[in-house]
Amino acid sequence: MHTRAKIHCLVRGLDEAIARARLEEKLKSFGLWADEFSDRLVPIAGYLERPRFGLEASRFDSLGETVDCIFHAGASISLVHLLPQLKPANVDGTVEILRFPAERSWAARICRAWPSRW
Q1: Bridge partners for 70 per DSSP
Q2: Which residue of 2, 47, 55, 97 lies most exposed, with the fewest beta carbons within 10 A?
Q3: pTM score, whole prediction
Q4: Cα distances (Å, whole numbers) of residue 79 to 88, 93, 100, 102
Q5: What is the domain partition of the chain in residue ranges?
Q6: Burial (0-12, 13-18, 19+ Cβ within 10 Å), 46
Q7: How far does CA 83 lie from the centroid of its chain?
C-alpha cells in the first residue's frame, strides 16, 4: 500500500451503515476488497442526482474542507430510458460534482471515469 489517505465514497443509501455494506459488497464482487481498506474507506450515504448529493448543508460543507481530489465514475446507464430519466444522475450529478469545489477556495482535481457496464 502506497498511501494511508482516506477515500470518501458517495454510495446510494439512507445511512452510513447501508452505504458501507453496499461499498464492501461491490468491491468484493470485483475481487477488490481487502480488510485493511475498512479504516480508510469513508462511505457517504447520498445520491448523485440530488442537490448537495442529498446531504445536509453542514455535511456537504465539511466534505469540502476534507476532499482534495474527486474521482467521478457514477452514472445511470440504460438502453431503454430516455434522456429525461437519465439526466438527473448523468448531467445534473456531474454539474453538482463540478459545483462542489467551485463553491470553495480550492482548485479540485476531478477525474471522470466512464462506467464499464454498457
Answers
A1: 110
A2: 2
A3: 0.79
A4: 16, 19, 29, 33
A5: 1-46, 55-118
A6: buried
A7: 21
